[in-house]
Write a structure and sequence with these properties.
Blueprint (H helix, E strand, L loop, with lengths): L2 H4 L3 H6 L8 E4 L15 H10 L4 E4 L18 H9 L6 E4 L2 E2 L5 H14 L4 E2 L2 E2 L20
Parallel strand pairs: 1-2, 2-3, 3-5, 4-6
Helix pairs in contact: 4-5
């Protein structure tokens, strides 16, 4: 993709404004020390408020399973489904994945899912990819952590 074509993409324009610092948030913005997982209570309202405040992006992490060795409960919600819901209540804020764990996804289906969110959001979808950092998740998918990037 050329720089000229990227400059027409609404998500790209939101994140890479010329001569400007942009600010985004990673969702969900909630702690849950006394519960097994976060809820979605108030998340859509928070997304609308971030959009109205002029923030550049909302990001979702891709953490397939909770690993107590990492000291966080990760992101229990499926990020692309969550971003599709956020797209339905926002108008200008970019929507991105803060590292879809590519070795744990089927690439053609992932491409279709991302294209769907991009269409639902009128071009605001930004795809971030990663190779993953939690070895305990890979055996659950029948994948060897050591060779995940090959």
């Amino acid at each position: 993709m050329s720089a000229a074509s990227l400059s027409r993409h609404p998500g790209y324009r939101s994140l890479f404004a010329p001569k400007a610092l942009t600010l985004g948030l990673i969702m969900p913005l909630e702690t849950y020390p006394d519960a097994p997982a976060p809820t979605m209570r108030g998340h859509m309202a928070a997304a609308v408020a971030a959009d109205a405040a002029g923030l550049s992006a909302l990001w979702m992490r891709d953490v397939p399973f909770y690993d107590p060795g990492y000291g966080d409960a990760g992101q229990v919600f499926e990020p692309l489904t969550y971003l599709a819901a956020i797209a339905s209540v926002t108008t200008s804020i970019a929507l991105g994945t803060a590292g879809i764990v590519l070795p744990l996804r089927e690439p053609k289906l992932l491409a279709k899912q991302v294209a769907t969110v991009d269409q639902l959001s009128a071009g605001r979808m930004m795809l971030g990819l990663s190779s993953g950092d939690r070895p305990s998740e890979y055996p659950l998918f029948g994948i060897d952590f050591a060779t995940r990037g090959e």
